[in-house]
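Now for a specimen:

…
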Amino acid sequence: MPKIDIRRPHQLSVPEARAVVDKVAARMQEKFGMEGQWEGDTLKFSRSGVNGTIAVGEDAIQVKAELGMMLAPLKGMVEQEIRRKLDEHFA
């Protein structure tokens, strides 16, 4: 299965970065029906065809996702959208 692994540095405190991730996760749930749950400073998310994590560190955000067979052909587009959102919120 195709995997996505993106790391983006940030200048926020961990609570501020978590708040941003929460905001993005709420939008993902609204738009795509994605479910998410925090385990420590890592948000685990899933929906049909994709599952992954968003780990909030002191100086970086790491997004890892595994795409199912149906989303495999869209890997480039999904990865581009994740990068765009990270740039928008953490640049």
